[in-house]
Amino acid sequence: xxxxxxxxxxxxxxxxxxxxxxxxxxxxxxxxxxxxxxxxxxxxxxxxxxxxxxxxxxxxxxxxxxxxxxxxxxxxxxxxxxxxxxxxxxxxxxxxxxxxxxxxxxxxxxxxxxxxxxxxxxxxxxxxxxxxxxxxxxxxxxxxxxxxxxxxxxxxxxxxxxxxxxxxxxxxxxxxxxxxxxxxxxxxxxxxxxxxxxxxxxxxxxxxxxxxxxxxxxxxxxxxxxxxxxxxxxxxxxxxxxxxxxxxxxxxxxxxxxxxxxxxxxxxxxxxxxxxxxxxxxxxxxxxxxxxxxxxxxxxxxxxxxxxxxxxxxxxxxxxxxxxxxxxxxxxxxxxxxxxxxxxxxxxxxxxxxxxxxxxxxxxxxxxxxxxxxxxxxxxxxxxxxxxxxxxxxxxxxxxxxxxxxxxxxxxxxxxxxxxxxxxxxxxxxxxxxxxxxxxxxxx
Length: 444
Hints:
Organism: Acinetobacter entericus
Family: Belongs to the helicase family. DnaB subfamily.
CATH topology of the largest domain: Rossmann fold
Keywords: ATP-binding, DNA replication, DNA-binding, Helicase, Hydrolase, Isomerase, Nucleotide-binding, Primosome
Radius of gyration: 28 Å
EC number: 5.6.2.3
Number of helices: 17
Number of strands: 11
Number of domains: 2
Distance between the termini: 64 Å
């Protein structure tokens, strides 16, 4: 039996409820049956709530009567126990709310205790293949225990939900509020559209193509413009590198200067100012080499508890994630892709995964979605696939300063190609201003 409870506080709360008129209404949102540890106290609380729902007083006389009617009076130890409560809890009348807060604290600790016991049992079971994933499933059940999700709809209900969603999106769009993530590259955003909650977007490219820069622009845009929390699982670069790249993009201090600590002509002042200005950006970085998919789930749950909700999850990059339950690498990547797709729905936010392209894509031609390395399942699962393709000069094969962003798949919009300017010296891209943009004042 758990020792995480206080019989005295439980008695105090019940005494206050049965003494002060309308007291239940002041704590009803914070008090439930599970807040009580003793079964007899749960029975008394249920009698109080039943009387309240019937618009009847819930003083000790009516509570005793209700317990007799429902044949629960013997469960609490007889009517004498109600008198015992009042004899042992004289000060409770004035401390209902702080006592309720204490009961909630005990409740939370009992829940964690149960989770720990469940994980301990899993740890002892050597027949479980992926013990981390099994433990994470217990945590998942705890997080979602109070969120019974409706999954069955008549078409009338489906139409109502669809209409409500449309109105919410229109209102958010009109008010320039968050509806999903964008790249802060107008031509790319106009082609792709908004990468919305529940979408799984893949950004592919060869090493050095700028895929991490695109993801970083999403992170900054989401955290800075919309003030939505971003989880970055950085399996490739360390947290210092990621942070310095963000500072470079935000201040336009060349990344090489920051990396080499070569700051002059006011750069140091700008760097310190940026640290002070942007320290509260809701970007959470998990620096872990070869994380498992179970660990990524754990990171996401931790970030969601910390920030209440997530605006975006970024994985850099997909082929570095591991799933120990799969022995074949093709099956492993396929399983990870499906899990990331499911995570987008579970956490109600876009999941953006970076992915490497195979070497065939280096032969001078535009890459295709089928060039994604190791698994065709990624191509199947993704809602959007964007490929970063640096353009080289035809005469010397050196970088031209332009990158093509190829929208190879877009389940909810158009496909096509947009050219952007490389500003990789400051870890960002910029839109190319066309003559038409200049006439209408567009571009960046």
